[in-house]
Amino acid sequence: MKIGRLTFVVLGAFAAVSCSTERITIEVMKPSYTQVDTSIVEIGLGTRVDFDKISVPTRINGNRANEFRKSVRLAGDVALETLQQELQETGRYAPYLIKYGALPLSVQLPPDKATTVSIDKVCKAYRLEGLIVLESYEAHIDSDGYATYSSPVDRNYGTVQVPVFHSSRSVDLNMFWRFYSCEDNKPFFEQDISTDYQYQTQSENPYESRSELPSSEVSLLSVSERGAKQLLPYISPFWVKETRSFYAYGTTQLVEAANLAREGYWSQATDIWFELTKDPRKSIAKKAVYNMILASEVAGDYELAKSWANTAIEEYKDNKAVNYLQLLNEREKELDQIDAQFPSK
Question: Domain total for the chain?
Answer without folding.
Answer: 2
